[in-house]
Amino acid sequence: MTGATDKLCVGMITKAHGIKGYVCVHSYCETPSDIFDYQPLTNVAGTQQYKLKSVGTVRGMFVASVNGITDRNDAEMLAKTELYINRNQLPEMDEDDTFYVSDLVGLTVVSETTAVLGKIVAVENFGAGDILECKSDDYKTFMIPFTDDAIATVELENERVVISNMAESFIRDEGDNT
Asked: Could you please report the per-residue DSSP string of 115-142?
């Protein structure tokens, strides 16, 4: 499958918290506390391992201890560290119509009339829901909200995402203005 990758980012250490070496952790997992079930976590290269233990929450993020980190100075060095797991650590999907968001990266975006519009290069979430970032030879980079109104179907077996006519009209209008 085109979109599958070996490493998946499941969260980020955002900043140091307090003087004991604790860090704030933002989880990208569907059930946020699941991030503590994937141990050890690694950096993107897999060269550094992090064993996290939740010690509380603050402002919607977890506060955690990290193996070997005992003071604020060391914790500050971990700020903005993305946390990865190997894909094989994830449970298998039981249903045919379920998938991991990372499976979408690399899929072709097509209209309901099967016109090729581009490829998904990233899945972003800025707080209001998932957005597919796509690139095409015909259009500049364009974004599609990952909603029922914009996405007609996700066809992993055909390595494509079919977008609705409504979503396509926004893309074409955006492309006409440049």
From this structure: -EEEEEEEEEESSSSEEEEEE-SSSS-E
